[in-house]
């Protein structure tokens, strides 16, 4: 077993990043013009990386499977982006953001990386404002903030309920400037099929043109993977349907260790599943928990009446409602972290208090917020004794200004007006904290192969706090990778252009074509979605919100059997050398069928509960996660050796010098 070196610099934590930047190697501007970098994925992490690297002078090639970088899944991030600017004057600081993030991740993240994230967070906001991102502003013109789960301050900057989209447009505009300069070559509708290693270093990729079906070779001095997470291993998730693990998994099979695959986040505010034919779930932003109160009926008979359609939630008195988060966690209330809120909702529904027809939903109610905002607006408008109708009208206007597009989206999907009746929500798979293992420089265990954003494991531990995904993606892309990649590329200034006419590229292309042909050769009877849905059910039932040793062992066997059946009986229609969406799905599901097994193995091996990894055998008397810091205070980094269940475990010990390890409490 190898003990991994994170390469976190020595010294006081607040000086580590500055010291590191001062000591690493640089590439001078004239030499950058002779160095090529491939960036796979053009969401916030990839787009910001590509734009900044090109601005510095490197020659960049970008690849995305969408028809435009603007369609990256980053646009789905609704609620906001964290930064420790302390505009509210409520006590925020770099240290406070660092502390909240480590605590929110249940003490399973690397201190050095998290502090750096907090340290550069303020720069992100300045960068995005300069790009024209229309953040919400207060009456006086300063940028506004709101709170998210797991914190006691307001540090989340937002653009209504479409923050991710606005930030992505900023990164995309920066990319377009470099495309216009000729510093970025953009390959849209291309999918990375494999990573190419030359003398043990990442030197390029094999990609498939998704329009023509052509298999292409692309070389570079370094490869950056910014391809997002693997939540779609569950089939039903809040991820875009095209989101996949192919780029990361190809790198894993070439030698990049995969870290903490079982650390997957369940988001508490998702629109509940509506039927067996559903292919995707829709998220309601965590920002709604700023003003929405979560509850279920206090009495089983009322819950049953609501499920049967005999009682409306608006007819239930305050005394008959259980605001269970406020009851169980008085200090944080409805703004507890996502893993805590999700498990609490599941517990209430499992006990029979769920409120939709399936019993798998709780209420998110804005009635109190509408009344509070209405009274405040009436008072500031000079109406000292407003009537109830006026209060509701004014309050709804305030709520609409803050969350209008989210309310509109909910009504379009459910055909219910959330201003008049509470939203129904239930937890769903949303984000993956696991990913490719990277060191402090964001390099994987393959020299020259980097991973940024959700594709790596580095910053969130066992649970991600809300509004921190955008922060990490842009921190990596704008302010970390452009520095650290130079330390590696400084040795390549005399290498010259990397040729694709080599044995390594020839072999990689041949393997890709053989794998594609193998999918067609099955000539089975079952479509790809048949296997994806079956895998998703296994993952949700046995590796989902709670896990136990029996279910995990069963999952390992069931996934292997399903994978064997997939390669024997899948039916891929169409042809290779043309546009073929079914072939695209087949390749992605094949990877999920391997990742799912590693996921279950990782969850089985980690005999503790922490963050989003909740083992039923390890919980406190009141049902909270029970960590084992003595035996599991490490990052699980898995080396591919053939079969996922035979993966070799490597450990990176987590050292806490600046934060005391203690039981996480939000009460």
TrEMBL record:
Q: Where is each Fumarate reductase/succinate dehydrogenase flavoprotein-like C-terminal domain found?
A: 532-666
Query: Under which main EC class is this enzyme filed?
Result: oxidoreductase
Subcellular location(s) per record: Cell membrane
Quickly give the catalysed reaction.
Answer: a quinone + succinate = fumarate + a quinol
All copies of domain FAD-dependent oxidoreductase 2 FAD-binding, residue ranges = 36-470
What is the predominant subcellular site recorded for this chain?
membrane
Instruction: Name the UniProt key words of this record, in alphabetical order.
Output: Cell membrane, Electron transport, FAD, Flavoprotein, Membrane, Oxidoreductase, Transport
* Top-level lineage group: Bacteria
- GO annotations under biological process? anaerobic respiration
**Family assignment from sequence similarity:** Belongs to the FAD-dependent oxidoreductase 2 family. FRD/SDH subfamily.
In Swiss-Prot or TrEMBL terms, this protein is called succinate dehydrogenase
Gene label: sdhA
């Amino acid at each position: 077993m190898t003990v991994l070196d994170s390469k976190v610099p020595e010294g006081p934590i607040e000086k580590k990043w500055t010291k590191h930047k001062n000591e690493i190697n640089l590439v001078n501007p004239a030499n950058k013009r002779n160095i090529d970098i491939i960036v796979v994925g053009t969401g916030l992490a990839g787009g910001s990386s590509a734009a900044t690297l090109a601005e510095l002078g490197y020659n960049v090639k970008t690849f995305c499977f969408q028809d435009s970088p603007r369609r990256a899944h980053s646009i789905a991030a609704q609620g906001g982006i964290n930064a420790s600017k302390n505009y509210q004057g409520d006590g925020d600081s770099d240290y406070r953001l660092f502390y909240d993030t480590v605590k929110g991740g249940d003490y399973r993240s690397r201190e050095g990386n998290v502090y750096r994230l907090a340290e550069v967070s303020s720069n992100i906001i300045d960068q995005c404002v300069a790009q024209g991102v229309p953040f919400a502003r207060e009456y006086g013109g300063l940028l506004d903030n709101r709170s998210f789960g797991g914190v006691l301050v307001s540090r989340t900057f937002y653009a209504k309920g479409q923050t991710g989209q606005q930030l992505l447009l900023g990164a995309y505009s920066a990319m377009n400037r470099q495309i216009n300069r000729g510093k970025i070559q953009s390959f849209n509708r291309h999918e990375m099929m494999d990573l190419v290693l030359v003398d043990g270093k990442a030197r390029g990729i094999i990609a498939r043109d998704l329009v023509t079906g052509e298999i292409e070779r692309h070389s570079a001095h370094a490869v950056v993977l910014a391809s997002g997470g693997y939540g779609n291993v569950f089939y039903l998730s809040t991820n875009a349907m095209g989101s996949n693990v192919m780029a990361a998994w190809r790198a894993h099979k070439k030698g990049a260790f995969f870290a903490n695959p079982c650390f997957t986040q369940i988001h508490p505010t998702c629109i509940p599943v509506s039927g067996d034919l559903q292919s995707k779930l829709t998220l309601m932003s965590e920002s709604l928990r700023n003003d929405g109160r979560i509850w279920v009926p206090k009495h089983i008979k009322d819950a049953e009446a609501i499920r049967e359609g005999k009682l409306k939630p608006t007819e239930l008195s305050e005394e008959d409602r259980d605001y269970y988060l406020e009851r169980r966690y008085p200090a944080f209330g409805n703004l507890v972290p996502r893993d805590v809120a999700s498990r609490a909702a599941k517990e209430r529904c499992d006990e029979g208090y769920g409120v939709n027809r399936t019993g798998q939903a709780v209420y998110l109610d804005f009635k109190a917020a509408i009344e509070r905002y209405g009274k405040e607006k009436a008072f500031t408008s000079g109406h000292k004794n407003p009537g109830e109708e006026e209060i509701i009208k004014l309050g709804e206007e305030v709520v609409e200004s803050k969350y209008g597009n989210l309310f509109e989206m909910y009504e379009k999907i459910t055909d219910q007006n959330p201003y008049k009746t509470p939203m129904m929500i239930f937890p769903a798979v949303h984000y993956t904290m696991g990913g490719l293992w990277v060191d402090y420089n964001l390099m994987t265990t393959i020299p020259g192969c980097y991973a940024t954003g959700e594709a790596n494991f580095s910053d969130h531990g066992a649970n991600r706090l809300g509004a921190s995904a955008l922060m990490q993606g842009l921190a990596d892309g704008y302010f970390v990778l452009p520095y650290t990649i130079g330390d590696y590329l400084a040795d390549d200034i005399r290498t010259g252009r990397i040729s694709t006419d080599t044995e390594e590229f020839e072999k990689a292309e041949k393997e890709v074509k053989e794998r594609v042909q193998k999918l067609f050769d099955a000539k089975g009877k079952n479509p790809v979605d048949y296997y994806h849905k079956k895998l998703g059910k296994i993952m949700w039932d046995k590796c989902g919100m709670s896990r136990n040793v029996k279910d995990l062992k069963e999952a390992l066997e069931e996934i292997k059997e399903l994978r064997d059946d997939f390669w024997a009986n899948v039916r891929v229609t169409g042809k290779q050398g043309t546009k073929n969406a079914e072939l695209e799905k087949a390749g992605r599901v094949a990877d999920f069928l391997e990742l799912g097994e590693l996921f279950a193995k990782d969850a089985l091996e980690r005999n503790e509960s922490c963050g989003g990894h909740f083992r039923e055998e390890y919980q406190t008397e009141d049902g909270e996660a029970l960590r084992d810091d003595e035996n599991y205070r490490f990052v699980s980094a898995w080396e591919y050796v053939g079969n996922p269940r035979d993966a070799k475990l490597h450990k990176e010990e987590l050292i806490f010098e600046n934060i005391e390890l203690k039981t996480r409490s939000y009460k």
